[in-house]
Amino acid sequence: MAANESYPDDLRYHPEHDWARVEGDEAVLGITWFAQDALGELVHFEAPEIGATLTQNASYAEVESVKAVSDVIAPISGEVLDVNQKAVDEPETINEDPYGEGWLVRIRLADAGELDALMDADAYKAHVAEQ
Amino acid sequence: MNATLRRTPLYERHVAAGARMVPFAGWEMPVQYDGVIPEHLAVRADAGAFDVSHMGQIHVEGPAARELLQSLLSNDLDRLGDGDAQYTLLTNEQGGIVDDLIVYRMNHGHFFLVVNAGNREVAYEWLKEREIRGTEVRDASDDYALIAVQGPSSVQKLGLPDAPPFTHAMGEVADIEVMVCRTGYTGEKGVELLCPAEDGAELWDAVLQRGVVPCGLGARDTLRLEVCYPLHGNDITQETDAISAGLGWTCALEKDFTGVETLRQVKERGPERKLVAFVMEERAIPRQGMSIERGGEVTSGTHSPSLDVGIGMGYVPAERAAPDTELAIDVRGKTRRARIVKKPIYRKET
To answer: Using CA atoms, how far apart are residues B228 and B223, in angstroms rounded to an integer?
Structure first.
């Protein structure tokens, strides 16, 4: 079942409703609770290839609900190190646990300086409140 | 939300229940309540209710009503007795489909048509302009609420008697007088309940109180596509003919009706393209407008909640329209394999 609305403090957020959890020179990326709620039950995650290059603010994947398809925007640039196979095989995992089991990809950061452009949880909550 | 969108008599109920409202054919309608997938599965396993009050209702009355409709509708009206219903097409001179609809025979001088929401004005004007002496065509769409209750438990939950499909009779649900139509758009047993607009909200409440799950237009679309019921505007249009769409069974080609000559020709020489159903063989969801390689186009596509796979319908060249033929679909620049299947895509296990 769908998760309750939350925006963890340890993440950095992109205005297009994507999050990044930075771990050293790597980061785990996903979509926010707001994004999965707006899309509804996800039935497909079109993942990038391992080794693909992500560019900040550009689409790197697609998620689809029964009714619609949506681009997933890269909050930061980098190289894809790993794809969450569980999100591919059981896309509903993204609805159920968007910040945990429902992560999308792990990347190696291209430019840690790009993180400055992202929002913290409080700024993102204010952003969501305006939607 | 656009202020010019129309609202059904159940609008307040949908909003109060937290349904997600979207614009559809000029109406503000619920696309989902709890979610498309649970609603879809509830209809397949038990019972679900849909507000379809946005659909149009047209009365055709008078001593020449039968004569008029027999000349404008594709199916043979003379197969109907009082209390019967029939799926039929309103056709244009080129054999194209103005609308697909259900005609209910009340008596020999009174037929009742339920037409698509998006074609309500077009269908009404089409009929009105062709009125003949001894007929009266009347748009009564605003007079009624229409609630579809569908699923294997639907009839029993409503406390209604069983009856054959494509019949209708007056009945009561929770002391509200309704026209009980044994018709639907889901492939399941069920009814469509027609009542005066002012009774609509009370009827909706009574249906839900009997443990029927409220459903939105999202589930209505996935349910109909699994059983390959065409959607006007997607799979059939004024530019597509019934033979190519696999709806030849709704055309009484031995009688005279608008466009029949063209349809006879298409039938005789065989259609150039056919509307087929397909299932994805790779993980992808087909969508309306995607091209099918070697000539063809997806007209409807979605994720099938019953089968957990991408499904769709589309037109392909007739020589490559046989079941089991492999298709390649352009899914936003990536080629994805699909396979033509015999209609319907979903069949109930018995």
So the answer is: 9
